[in-house]
Specification:
With 390 residues, the chain is an alpha/beta fold. Helices cover 35% and strands 23% of the residues. The strands form four sheets. A six-stranded mixed beta sheet has the order 6-7-8-3-9-10, with helices on both faces. It has a four-stranded antiparallel beta sheet with strand order 2-1-4-5, with helices on one face. The protein has a four-stranded mixed beta sheet with strand order 11-17-16-15. The protein starts with a strand and ends in a 21-residue tail after the last helix. The relative contact order is 0.10. The structure holds adenosine-5'-diphosphate and magnesium ion.
Length: 390
C-alpha cells in the first residue's frame, strides 16, 4: 500500500510542481498517472522511491514513512524503468535480464532461475540467454526489456512513459504483456503516461493530473462515466465519452416503452387485427400481471383456419433481456446474433420495453457520426419520372 499525505513539491525558483496531493494505492494495483506535459506526473512518481524529496507532506509504504527508510533499502523494493527500455548492446540477454539482481548481489543460481522463468513467460527459448541484443528482433528486444523490469522481483515498479517512443503495434503488444505479467506476478505498478488510451487500457485506477493537482482518481470506467470536470472531459475527448456510454448506460435509455402485446385468452383473429392496425408483424404475449410469456408471429397465424383459437395455443418462445443490460450488450445481441427485436423485462419478468434494430442503428449513429456531414450532395439522387418507364 502506498499513501501520499498532503504531499507538495516546490522546485527551486518557487516552481510548484505538485500541490498538496492525497492518494492511496493498494498493493497489486496498476495505477496510471495521466496528464498533460508538466502536470507533475513524473515528480509524483519519483517521490515514491525518493529520487525526488517532497517539500512537505509524507509518503508511506505499508504504513511506513519512506523518509525514514534507508534509501538503498527502499530502492531494493522498488523497481524503476525510464523511457525506452533499451538493452545494453555489449551484454548478453542473460546479463541484461539480471542487471538489477546482480546489483542486489543475488546468488548465481537464483538469477539463473529467474532469467529462465521470465524468458518462458514471454515465449522465448532459453538459448536466447547467450545471445546479444542485436541478434534478436526489435519486438523480442522490447520483451526482454519488459521482463528485465520484473527480474529483481521488487513489489513496486515505477514506469515513466516506457513505451512513449514505440510504434502503435509494438506498443500495444507490450502493454498487453506488462498487464499480463503484472497480474500473474501480483506487482504494484505505478505508470506515467500522457496517452489516454494507454491509461484507460492499463489502469486499475488512474490519477488524472493538471497543474500539480489531482483532478480525479478512479477506475477508467467510473472516470468515463462521470468525468469530474471539463478538463477531464477534454482529456477523454468527445468520441471516447460517446462510445463509453454503451458500456455503462442500460437499455432503459433506448428501449421503446410499453410495446404492443396481447393476452393468452384473446382470439387469434383479434390479435391479427391488432397487428394490422399497429403495423407490426409480431406481438408479445403477457399474462394479466404483464409477465412475459412469449410471442406470436403473424406468419404463423392463419385467420381462416384458426381465427377462433386462443392466442395461448400459439405462443412461441421468446428471448429477452433484463432492463439493467448494458447498451453494448444489446447491440451485440441485435447485431451479432441477429435478433430483430428484443423484449426487455424487469427483475420480476414483467415486460417493460422493447429494443428494436432501428433504435440500435439510431443510437450507434448518434454517437459515432452525429456531427458528420457529407461534403457534397451528389452521392444521393432520386429516380426521375422518365427513368421509371421501360
Ligand atoms: N528539477 C526541476 N527543477 C525545476 N522545475 C522542475 C524540475 N523538474 C520538473 N520541474 C517542473 O515541475 C513541473 C512538473 O514536472 P514533471 O513532474 O516532470 O511533469 P510531467 O511528468 O507531468 O510532465 C513542470 O512544470 C516542470 O517544468
Ligand atoms: Mg514526465
Amino acid at each position: 500500500m502506498i499513501e501520499f499525505k498532503n504531499v507538495s513539491k516546490i522546485y527551486p525558483g518557487n516552481k510548484v510542481a505538485v500541490k498538496n496531493i492525497n492518494l492511496r494505492f493498494e498493493t497489486g494495483e496498476f495505477i496510471c498517472f495521466i496528464g498533460t506535459s508538466g502536470s507533475g506526473k513524473t515528480t509524483c512518481m519519483r517521490m515514491i522511491n525518493r529520487m525526488n524529496i517532497p517539500s512537505s507532506g509524507t509518503i508511506e509504504i505499508d504504513g511506513r514513512d519512506i523518509s525514514k527508510i534507508n534509501e538503498i533499502n527502499l530502492r531494493r523494493h522498488i523497481g524503476y524503468v525510464i523511457q525506452q527500455i533499451g538493452l545494453m548492446p555489449h551484454m548478453t540477454i542473460y546479463d541484461n535480464i539480471i542487471m538489477v539482481p546482480k546489483l542486489l548481489k543475488w546468488p548465481e543460481d537464483k538469477m539463473n532461475h529467474i532469467a529462465r522463468e521470465l524468458l518462458q513467460k514471454v515465449d522465448l527459448p532459453e538459448s536466447y540467454l547467450d545471445y546479444y541484443p542485436s541478434e534478436l528482433s526489435g519486438g523480442q528486444q522490447q520483451r526482454i526489456g519488459v521482463i528485465r523490469a520484473l527480474a529483481a522481483n521488487q513489489e513496486i515498479i515505477l514506469m515513466d512513459e516506457p513505451f512513449g517512443a514505440l510504434d502503435p503495434i509494438t506498443r500495444d503488444n507490450l502493454q498487453q504483456l506488462v498487464k499480463r505479467l503484472q497480474r500473474e506476478m501480483g506487482k504494484t505498478i505505478i505508470f506515467v503516461t500522457h496517452d489516454m488510451d494507454e491509461a484507460l487500457k492499463l489502469s486499475d485506477r488512474m490519477v488524472v493530473m493538471n497543474q500539480g493537482q489531482v483532478v480525479q482518481f478512479d477506475t477508467p470506467d467510473s472516470i468515463l462515466a462521470h468525468p469530474a470536470n471539463d478538463f477531464v472531459r477534454d482529456m477523454l475527448g468527445e468520441e471516447r465519452l460517446n462510445h463509453a456510454v454503451f458500456d455503462y448506460e442500460t437499455v432503459e435509455k433506448m428501449m421503446v416503452r410499453n410495446p404492443i402485446c396481447t393476452l393468452p385468452n384473446k382470439k387469434v383473429s383479434e390479435s391479427i387485427h391488432m397487428m394490422k392496425k399497429n403495423r407490426v408483424d409480431m406481438l408479445f404475449v403477457v399474462d394479466e400481471q404483464k409477465h412475459l410469456m412469449g410471442h406470436v408471429d403473424i406468419f404463423d397465424l392463419d385467420r381462416s383456419r384458426m381465427g377462433n383459437d386462443l392466442i395461448g395455443n400459439h405462443i412461441k418462445k421468446t428471448t429477452y433481456i433484463y432492463n439493467n443490460t448494458k447498451i453494448r450488450d444489446a447491440i451485440y445481441y441485435i447485431n451479432d446474433l441477429g435478433y430483430r427485436n428484443i423484449p426487455v423485462v424487469n427483475e420480476n419478468r414483467v415486460l417493460v420495453g422493447l429494443v428494436t434494430r432501428a433504435a440500435v442503428v439510431d443510437r450507434v449513429y448518434e454517437s459515432y457520426w452525429s456531427d458528420y456531414q457529407p461534403e457534397g450532395d451528389d452521392a444521393i439522387a432520386q429516380i426521375k419520372p422518365e427513368e421509371m418507364t421501360v
